[in-house]
Specification:
two-stranded antiparallel ribbon, about 160 residues, 2 domains, about 30% strand, alpha+beta, 6 helices, six-stranded antiparallel beta sheet
Length: about 160
């Protein structure tokens, strides 16, 4: 494998680096040192710069999304009878409005996996633990601890104002 292809593979394994390259905010030498590529730092930095030139520019779009918060969410095992009322079901657990100590942030509109990923990234940066998340058919939902509900709502709303294209 050539140094250029090995460098591209290493960059692609780090989505944050791809985003930063697309945004034009990378120190190529520092990135070359960070990546686990067998080669001289200057050569790897040059390969990163050339790869960055081929990537599309980082652009964001404001999504038309309605976001709401619902408190009192309870996780419960899916037992074959109660999951029909679930707001979200992941694996063998459903999350439903049942007086619990969790909060659901639900969004509808121009939602897809990229939008949810953006929201999850922002929640992680804000150190808000996501207990469950899902997306499908123009709807996304994240479940957080009740204490984080208001901050999570604001964070998710802001995330949908700048979703990468």
């Amino acid at each position: 494998m050539s140094l250029a292809s090995e460098t591209r593979r290493a960059v692609d394994e780090n989505p944050f680096l791809v985003a930063a390259l697309r945004a034009g905010i990378v120190n190529y030498t520092a990135a070359a040192r960070y990546l686990d590529v067998d080669g001289e730092t200057d050569a790897v930095a040059t390969a990163i710069r050339r790869y960055a030139e081929e990537l599309p520019a980082y652009e964001t779009t404001d999504r038309d999304v309605r976001v709401r918060m619902e408190r009192g969410i309870t996780p419960a095992p899916i037992d074959g009878t109660k999951h029909e009322t679930a707001l979200l079901a992941v694996g063998g657990t459903s999350f439903r409005s049942d007086g619990g100590e969790l909060t659901a942030i639900a969004a509808t509109g121009e939602i897809d996996a990229t939008a949810l990923g953006t929201a999850l990234g922002r929640l992680g940066n804000a150190e808000i633990e996501v207990i469950a998340a899902g997306v499908g058919e123009g709807t996304a939902m994240v479940v957080v601890d009740d204490r984080d509900g208001v901050d999570a709502l604001r964070t998710v709303e802001a995330a949908f104002e700048a979703v990468p294209e």
